[in-house]
Amino acid sequence: NAGVTQTPKFQVLKTGQSMTLQCAQDMNHNSMYWYRQDPGMGLRLIYYSASEGTTDKGEVPNGYNVSRLNKREFSLRLESAAPSQTSVYFCATRSAAEGYTFGSGTRLTVV
Amino acid sequence: AQSVTQPDIHITVSEGASLELRCNYSYGATPYLFWYVQSPGQGLQLLLKYFSGDTLVQGIKGFEAEFKRSQSSFNLRKPSVHWSDAAEYFCAVLTNAGNMLTFGGGTRLMVKP
Q1: Yes or no, beta carbons of A31 and B99 under 8 Å apart
Q2: What is the mean pLDDT of the segment spanning A24-48?
């Protein structure tokens, strides 16, 4: 069982470039989340999707868009990357019974 | 708004010594509380959680935490630390009808031999 799979694991972008971070789960969970992790700030919620077809903003949504393609996949898009978006990005899923399951992260550097 | 504070950014303990990591939360309703551990370059692993009932909860790897409503705290403890416990630890509170997990800033634990 893969759980929550994030791709890519590492990425370097130039300022202004765009990219999409992919997240796929095989846990059949309804809820999916994107967090960013920065030193000293813990993880902060960017966007979440409580179910297929719905998305909502979290604490730090500016500069990002998301797509809940189907129940399994939840992607995060940076349309015009900025150095302030250098971070480690985590995708997570949640069920009432199992709680949260996190992916292993995508380390993004914007130069 | 809900918030979680972990007052200690770094803690260093000797192997075999006891450990307590502090966590304070701010949330109007009854909180659901969590402790996660993150090893370098890895994702987050759940150590333990508190939803209701007994205020002393046991987790994996010999960790426990105590919920104290009067102090708005959920401190993590371990009686004897092992070198493999060196990692970053995050306290979190579940809010917004379960749709938002709010994290503290983390405490990095270093273990001296």
Answers
A1: yes
A2: 93
Q: Are B11 and B108 in contact (CB under 8 A)?
A: yes
Cβ distance A87 to A27 under 8 Å?
no
pLDDT at A10: 96
Give the whole-angstrom CA distance, residue A60 versus residue B82. 36
| Mean pLDDT over the full length of chain A | 94
Q: Which two tokens stand for residue B11?
A: 């803690």
Lowest-confidence region among A12-26, A87-101, B41-55, B92-106: B92-106
**Spatial distance between the Cα atoms of A57 and A48, rounded to a whole number of angstroms:** 7
Distance separating alpha carbons of residues B72 and B42, to the nearest angstrom:
29
Q: What is the DSSP code string of A44-91?
A: EEEEEESSTT--EE-S--TT-EEEE-SSSBEEEEESS--GGG-EEEEE
For A88, name the nearest residue in chain B, comparing CA atoms only: B41
Q: Which pLDDT score is estimated for B40?
A: 85
Instruction: Please say if the pLDDT value at position A1 is more than 80.
Output: no
Kindly tell me if the per-residue pLDDT of A60 is higher than 60: yes
If interface means Cβ-Cβ distance under 8 Å, which residues of chain A face chain B? 31, 33, 40-45, 48, 50, 56, 58-59, 90, 92, 94, 96, 99-100, 102-105
Give the pairing of strands B107-112 and B10-14.
parallel
To the nearest whole angstrom, how far is the Cα of B89 from the nearest Cα of chain A? 9
